Amino acid sequence: MSRRLFFGFHAATARLRHEPSTVDEIYYDSSRSDRRMLDFIQTANKAGIRLIAVDEKRLSSLAGTHRHQGVVARAQPVSLALNLDEVLDAVEEPPLLLVLDGITDPHNLGACLRVADSTGVHAVIVPRDRSVGLNATVTKVASGAAESVPYIAVTNLARALRNLKERNILVIGTADQAPKTIFETDFTGGFALVMGSEGAGMRRLTRETCDALVSIPMYGQVENLNVSVAAGVCLFEARRQRSVAKKE
């Protein structure tokens, strides 16, 4: 099984807390002796992880960026659900899925994973050939969410969406000019929220596969939102509706 590198305090600490047995070793900045680093080293020592003191140049080389915060970890991939059937068979409530069509910026993908985790999304679905993938930058931005939310890359996104519809899961796409807003849409049943890339939006076939299109009402001068922010607005509205429905 291939090892993965990830960096940053949030990503490394999340793995140490939830799956310490998968961490092989951690490289850290030998020049740092601040409280944050000392607390992190203590956490790693308690977990029995091998610590390797290196300089900043070595850390940057490993991470592929200078934004590693002085920590780079090497670990085995965490075992999450490998396909949609595994995810859906295990869900005990109406499925809540996030579909990302053409998100190629690692910061956007990492932020979307963080939103997915915070809203209890059961899986994030992406097209295999139109996504940045779970690289080290995505993992850092996700702050641990890359280790907790199943990430399903499919060969044919439109086919995957049709399979969801066969399971009575609504496919709801987002579009600026959609006739209904998220506040006029029922999110209490099982659904997959489809977000397109900023600017281009969803691809034509993806859009045509959707059961419905919804928009986020905008009240200011800004015309649209970052994809992760938009996903958060929609998904928290879905959770709000489900919470209200449970109380009725």
Helices, strands, pairings?
Blueprint: E1 4-7, H1 9-18, E2 23-29, H2 35-46, E3 50-54, H3 56-63, E4 71-75, H4 84-90, E5 96-101, H5 106-118, E6 123-127, H6 136-142, E7 151-154, H7 157-166, E8 170-174, E9 180-181, E10 191-196, H8 204-209, E11 212-215, H9 227-247
Parallel strand pairs: 2-3, 5-6, 5-10, 6-7, 8-10, 8-11, 9-11
Antiparallel strand pairs: 1-4, 2-4
Helix pairs in contact: 1-6, 5-6, 5-9
Explained architecture:
With 248 residues, the chain is an alpha/beta fold. It has two domains: 72 residues, 60s Ribosomal Protein L30, Chain: A; 164 residues, Alpha/beta knot (3-Layer(aba) Sandwich), CATH 3.40.1280.10. Strand 6, helix 6 and strand 7 form a beta-alpha-beta unit. Helix 1 packs across helix 6, helix 5 runs parallel beside helix 6 and helix 5 packs parallel to helix 9. The mean pLDDT is 89.
Please summarize what this structure is.
The protein has about 250 residues and is of the alpha/beta class. The chain has nine helices and eleven strands. It folds into two domains: about 5-75, Ribosomal protein L30/S12 (60s Ribosomal Protein L30, Chain: A, 2-Layer Sandwich), CATH 3.30.1330; about 85-245, 3-Layer(aba) Sandwich (Alpha/beta knot), CATH 3.40.1280.10.
